[in-house]
Design goal:
By secondary structure, the chain is of the alpha+beta class. The strands form nine sheets. Strands 23, 26, 28, 30 and 31 form a five-stranded mixed β-sheet that branches. It has a four-stranded antiparallel β-sheet with strand order 1-22-21-20, with no helix packed on it. The longest helix has 35 residues, at 2-36. The protein starts with a helix and ends with a strand.
Length: 653
């Protein structure tokens, strides 16, 4: 009989395991479909569900890639770190990990991982090796010695989505945004669309981001409300960055459209490349029908980021057309005597094996552009190329905090050649990409100094990333030195959040202010990091439930909010929330009651904005008692209370 029961149990277990695995495979199949169509926001949710059911290298790699594509580098760093350590992992995951660390300003750690990758891949060129390592060294120097400028977020233009590419136009400003629900009832970049060739893509939601499509907006004056730019583009999809001629009568812009010449493959994804169009304003003030740029090729490559010179005779743009030096290169077309555009000329002096975009010239012919192929901070950095004897000469990085470890691009100049607007998806913005102006007269009044240490050992933590966020202002970052010390300059009458983080540690966040300070010139704020131990139970104090109940009481909510804060401050960790009972009552009842209590606590945490994939409920009943008070043992109320507890474990960092 015992053998039969064991055999039945094993059979049931195998069936359960098979069902569990099959379910994970089903989710992966659906996730892959969304991933291949660039619907990354949906794919991420599905891959996370699949990974929770079965921890596979494939799901971890896909999550790392997908989070990179949506510019969530903190999550990308976490998943690349996991993927890089799993059996059978490709060395490319180490490279992805290094790049994610760099995007998160962890330059010392990034350099270590670049060296790790170089050691495993002997085919890395000396040029590429130099760019990676010198970028980490240079960025570390720049963030420890920032320029005395401040980037000011243009909150009257920005939204919770992506806003970029602002240019002044006739007293107002024109820019690109994928904001949704604007209340503007007119129906009119990302690099391209991709969709199932047998179906049209969604006309309201762009799957890559989950937001609306890019459109052009105009704010005619500081006191005017935001409006859709009054041009009929003939597309319901992306309309991107714009450049105007000096007289304001002709505009060049990018868009994506579904055309008859588009090649569609049955049951295979179709790619729609970006194109450049122009439009001229008539005497009646109405913008004319868009005219296709002569070198558009919707099936072969993209052309975008147009910039028309002041005299209207040179059109600069970025493209991934064949024959370039890297991903996207910058080209120029010169207008012929007959008024047509000559063949594209590759600006080989500035292009690299990486990506170049956002070409802009000032009135003195000094050239500004963005690149991720040069020594920089990570992502796209802004560079200035001084023209010497008619040719592009010395190229310099604009430094920190002008540049950030994220993408800095989409800028415009004033009459004197100074940058008026800069676009960036750096931390501290209102949305994905934000529009900033540059303040070069930042007045510094105080200095902040501090030390970052290990909470357990009190030893200094070298190479920790320290972030200073000015409330309603900008974000600065630095790394601690070998003794754990850091410093920042502070402005008068300002509030700040200062935080420290490092891989394998829980972060620490403090608040400070210079409001009302008149005498002290130096403020001190030390920070402590607590080492993460995977699957170590951490007790939540004062989580009580009414007898035979599982609803969250107000006193328990206060304690659960502390866990919510931990998860907000550490956005990559996943936790298991466990509920335990004492031994009194039936074992099966206690198990069910504890599960309901754990689920109730988890639902409360999700209701506070924590993603459902990051937290799981587990009821243990009386299976993990902390003392001798098992069934039938006489114990005091205090001893039973020790077993009635709520704990959480970090199961992924």
């Amino acid at each position: 009989m015992k053998k039969i029961l064991i055999g039945t149990f094993l059979c049931a277990y195998c069936l359960f395991a098979f069902s569990f695995s099959a379910n994970a495979q089903y989710i992966l199949k659906d996730a892959d479909k969304q991933y291949e169509l660039f619907n990354y926001s949906k794919a991420i949710d599905l891959y996370e569900q699949a990974y929770k059911k079965k921890e596979t290298l494939y799901a971890a790699e896909r999550l790392a890639n997908a989070y990179t594509f949506v510019y969530n580098y903190k999550q990308a760093e976490s998943w690349y770190a996991i993927a890089a350590k799993m059996p059978g992992s490709n060395p490319e995951n180490i490279l992805g990990y290094a790049k994610a660390l760099q995007r998160n300003s962890k330059y010392s750690e990034a350099k270590t991982q670049y060296l790790n990758y170089i050691d495993k891949n002997k085919n890395v060129s000396e040029k590429q090796r130099t760019v990676w390592l010198a970028s980490c060294d240079s960025a570390l120097k720049w963030i420890r010695n920032p320029k005395k400028i401040e980037l000011i977020n243009q909150k009257t233009l920005n939204s919770s989505q992506s806003d970029w590419g602002a240019v002044n136009y006739q007293g107002g400003v024109v820019f690109t945004s994928d904001r949704s629900n604007t209340g503007l009832n007119i129906r009119e970049s990302k690099p391209f669309l991709k969709f199932d060739g047998t179906k049209e893509p969604d006309q309201k939601v762009y799957g890559w981001t989950g937001n609306g499509y890019l459109k052009l907006y105009i704010k005619p004056s500081p006191n005017d409300s935001l409006q859709l730019f009054p041009i009929k583009t003939g597309t319901r999809y992306h309309v991107g960055s714009v450049s105007f001629t000096a007289d304001g009568k002709t505009m060049y812009f990018t868009l994506t459209r579904i055309t008859d010449e588009l090649e569609r493959l049955k049951k295979q994804p179709t790619t729609v490349n970006v194109e450049i169009f122009s439009s001229t304003k008539g005497a009646d003030g109405v913008w004319g029908e868009p005219v296709s740029f002569a070198y558009n090729n919707v099936n072969k490559y993209s052309v975008g980021d147009p910039f028309i010179s002041a005299d209207g005779n040179s059109l600069y743009f970025a493209s991934n057309m064949p024959g370039g030096l890297g991903g996207t290169d910058i080209y120029v077309c010169l207008k012929t005597d007959g008024g047509a555009w000559g063949k594209p000329i590759n600006l080989e002096e500035v292009n690299t094996e990486g990506n170049e975009r956002s070409p802009v010239f000032d009135e003195k012919d000094n050239f500004y552009f963005s690149s991720d192929g040069r020594i920089g901070m990570g992502g796209l950095d802004v560079y200035r190329a001084l023209k010497e004897k008619g040719k592009i000469g010395h190229i310099e990085n604009m430094g920190y905090p002008f540049n950030s470890p994220h993408d800095d691009f989409g800028f415009s100049l004033n009459e004197k050649g100074g940058i008026v607007y800069l676009s960036s998806n750096r931390e501290g913005g209102l949305g994905s990409d934000d529009i900033y102006t540059i303040d070069q007269k930042m007045i510094l009044a105080f200095r902040l100094e501090g030390r970052v240490s290990d909470k357990g050992s009190s030893q200094p933590v070298a190479g920790a990333l320290v972030t200073l966020e000015r409330v309603n202002g900008t974000v600065l970052k630095t790394e601690t030195d070998e003794n754990g010390y850091y410093n920042f300059n502070l402005a008068k009458e300002s509030e700040y959040h200062v935080s420290a983080e490092k891989t394998n540690y829980r972060s620490d966040v403090k608040n400070l202010t210079t409001i009302g300070l008149t005498t002290s010139s130096v403020l001190t704020q030390n920070l402590q990091l607590e080492a993460i131990v995977i699957n170590k139970a951490i007790k939540l104090e004062n989580i009580y439930y009414d007898f035979d109940k599982w609803n969250i009481r107000p006193d328990a909510a206060i304690e659960l909010d502390k866990l919510v804060k931990i998860m907000i401050d550490n956005p990559t960790i996943w936790i298991e929330l466990g509920s335990h009972t004492d031994s009194r009552g039936k074992d099966s009842y206690n198990l069910k009651l504890s599960q309901k209590r754990a689920e109730s606590a988890v639902q409360y945490i999700i209701s506070r904005g924590i993603d459902k994939n990051r937290i799981a409920a587990k009821g243990y009943g009386e299976t993990q008692l902390l003392n001798k008070c098992g069934n039938g043992v006489n114990c005091t109320e205090e001893e039973h209370q020790l077993n009635r507890r709520t704990e959480f474990k970090i199961v992924k960092q």
